[in-house]
Amino acid sequence: MSQKTYYHALWHKFHGEILKNQAELSTYINTPVGVGEHSDILEEIETKVKKINEYEGYLDTLNTIFSEHFEDPFRELEKEIVKQLEENSEVEEG
After folding, report:
1. Using one digit for the tens of pLDDT, what is the confidence trace for 67-76?
2. What value does the mean pLDDT of the chain take?
3. Rounded to whole angstroms, what are the CA distances from 30 to 1, 21, 35, 41?
4. For residues 64 and 57, what is the distance between their CA atoms, to the nearest angstrom?
5. Is residue 67 helix, strand or coil?
6. Residue 80 has pLDDT above 90, yes or no
7. What is the pTM of this model?
8. Cβ-contact 66, 3 below 8 angstroms
9. What is the number of other CB atoms lying within 10 angstroms of the CB of residue 35?
10. Which of 2, 17, 40, 68 is the most buried (most CB within 10 A)?
């Protein structure tokens, strides 16, 4: 496997953990009654916030380590979308 494959695998893993914890945090905040197995909602919210912070730190570290080799996978997609929008805009104006 290439370095880029490892980078993307870790990036997606860390980003997935952030999304998972954000979704669970949203459930705790918006529907705490629906989370019956957790008696201490405040503690659970704190745990989710810490997990989000932890995985955001992992992403920052990963990006720092690999920044000289690779870009954030979605940054490449974003650049492509912006380019297409600019091209479409030029066609409409021309």
Report:
1. 777 666 666 6
2. 82
3. 42, 14, 10, 11
4. 10
5. coil
6. no
7. 0.67
8. yes
9. 13
10. 17
Token pair in block for residue 59: 């992403």
Residue where the block lists tokens 């949203």? 26
Query: Which residues 6+ apart lie within 8 Å of 50 measured at CB?
Result: none
Q: How far is CA 84 from CA 21, 28, 72, 81, 90, in A?
A: 33, 40, 19, 5, 10
Helices (H), 1-94: 3-30, 41-66, 73-93
| Tokens coding 10 | 């870790």
- State the Cα–Cα distance between residues 86 and 63, nearest whole angstrom: 28
What does the pLDDT read at residue 68? Answer: 73
Q: Is 70 left (phi over 0), alpha (psi -120 to 50) or beta?
A: beta
